[in-house]
Design brief:
alpha/beta; 8-stranded parallel β-sheet
């Protein structure tokens, strides 16, 4: 039996990510961190070279690629067995990352930022994650408004899924992400989590990225990003119960332990997970 979820560990090779910017900017430390996340149970290692925090400034494709390519090559050479994901909205970066050993493209723009991205994914036969974002990182938190946030996000994801399929991407290789914190208020984020089953009805794996995000701190006592682990665990367990199946997190081990208990309690298919074991969809 296989478990019904995958854990995606975060490796930010950036100087300005909201909670760990600068910690893994040097390739050797980023590779070591990725391997450590796999040791904690990560099925996927998501490598990003451009911050998408609110207000973040864009970086050039050359600069982004210079950050992520040696890390992806190092993780591939390490032979951990985990899937490698590239977190980018640039086709040039995605193409090089896929050649270096990645097999999943995590695009926060859902193929809108670069007209060549869908073709790159389709040609490589790679998996992709299409995320909802209102606007772009520099402006997304400037008074975000929706008619009904769940209906609007669902319609967007359905449209982007249709676009990806029309561009030649195989449906079974598409994951969908509602974009928690990307152009949403606290209430928007909570409503998406409450009604996540409506997004799961689209029939594709739902990716959830609540890890360390500011809305958790506004609800609880975790003022700093590093103090939001309890909120991260709670939100991921709730998301799992409502149909999410991929969990993008900074701290893999505690979230994995909580999800294992949730899976067993809810009576879904599960198996004991040993460190470094990779599950596939």
């Amino acid at each position: 039996m296989s478990v019904s979820y995958r854990l995606m560990g975060i490796v930010n090779v950036t100087p300005d990510s909201f909670s760990d910017g600068g910690r893994f900017l040097e390739a050797r430390s980023a590779i070591a961190h990725g391997c450590s996340l796999v040791g904690e149970g990560a099925d996927i290692v998501d490598v990003g070279g451009e911050s998408t925090r609110p207000g973040a400034a864009p970086v050039s494709a050359r600069a982004e690629l210079g950050r992520v390519q040696p890390v992806i090559e190092g993780l591939a050479a390490a032979g951990t067995g985990a899937q490698i994901s590239i977190d980018t909205s640039k086709a040039l970066v995605a193409r090089a990352a896929l050649a270096a050993g990645a097999s999943l493209v995590n695009d926060v723009s859902a193929f809108r930022a670069d007209p060549e991205m869908a073709g790159v994914v389709a040609e490589a036969g790679a998996e992709c994650c299409l995320m909802h974002m209102l606007g772009e990182p520099r402006t997304m938190q400037h008074d975000p408004r929706y008619g009904d946030v769940v209906d609007d996000v669902k319609a967007f994801l359905e449209a982007r899924l249709a676009f990806a399929l029309a561009e030649g991407v195989s449906e079974h290789r598409v994951l969908l992400d509602p974009g928690i914190g990307f152009g949403k208020t606290v209430e928007h984020n909570l409503e998406l989590l409450r009604r996540l089953d409506e997004l799961a009805s689209l029939g594709r794996p739902i990716v959830i990225g609540t890890s360390r995000k500011s809305f958790l701190g506004r609800i609880g006592a975790g003022a700093s990003a590093s103090a939001r682990l309890a909120g991260t665990v709670a939100s991921n367990v709730l998301a799992y119960e409502r149909g999410a199946s991929v969990f993008r997190v900074h701290e893999v081990a505690p979230v994995g332990e909580a999800l294992a208990v949730a899976a067993a309690t809810l009576g879904r298919r599960w198996t004991a997970r040993s460190p470094g074991t990779t599950q596939t969809s």
